[in-house]
Amino acid sequence: MDMIREALATLPDAVFADLLESPTSYRLILDLPGVDSTGLDLEATEHHLELRATRTKQVPEGFEYHTDARSMTLSATIPMPTDADPEAASATLENGVLTIDIPRHEESGRSIPIEG
């Protein structure tokens, strides 16, 4: 979990992130104002979560940009916990808030008989 917290700390100041943990899953919540699903790419692998987000803006007719201080392009690599199940990850985007749920692997150990 420390690696995830460290990665989240490197995100730009404009991106607020929460990391939640339960016995069965992880939840990552990112505020990405102005980003819609067409400007978002999310990929989960066994080792990391890749996030790329771009906010697109409409210029009203008759106006032109003189200063573009609100653009946002975000690219982040967040390490995946060793017990995370990236194949079962899911995400939702609602009003610029991205919620990523990553279940934990179910423990599948067995008792080992000891001879002697």
Word description of this protein:
This protein is mainly beta. The protein has one domain: Sandwich (Immunoglobulin-like), CATH 2.60.40.790. The protein is 7% helix and 39% strand. The protein has a four-stranded antiparallel β-sheet with strand order 1-2-7-6, with helices on one face.
Architecture (CATH level 2) name: Sandwich
Q: Report helical residue fraction.
A: under 10%
Counting structural domains, the number is 1
- The tally of helices reads 1
Radius of gyration: 19 Å
Which stretches of 5+ consecutive residues score pLDDT under 50? none
CATH overall fold name: Immunoglobulin-like
| Morphology | elongated
CATH hierarchy, class: Mainly Beta
Share of β-strand residues: 35-45%
What is the mean pLDDT? 85
Number of strands: 7
Query: How does the helix and strand content classify structurally?
Result: mainly beta
Please summarize the sheet with the most strands: 4 strands, antiparallel
Distance between the termini: 40 Å
Enumerate the strands of the largest sheet in spatial order, edge to edge or round the barrel.
1-2-7-6
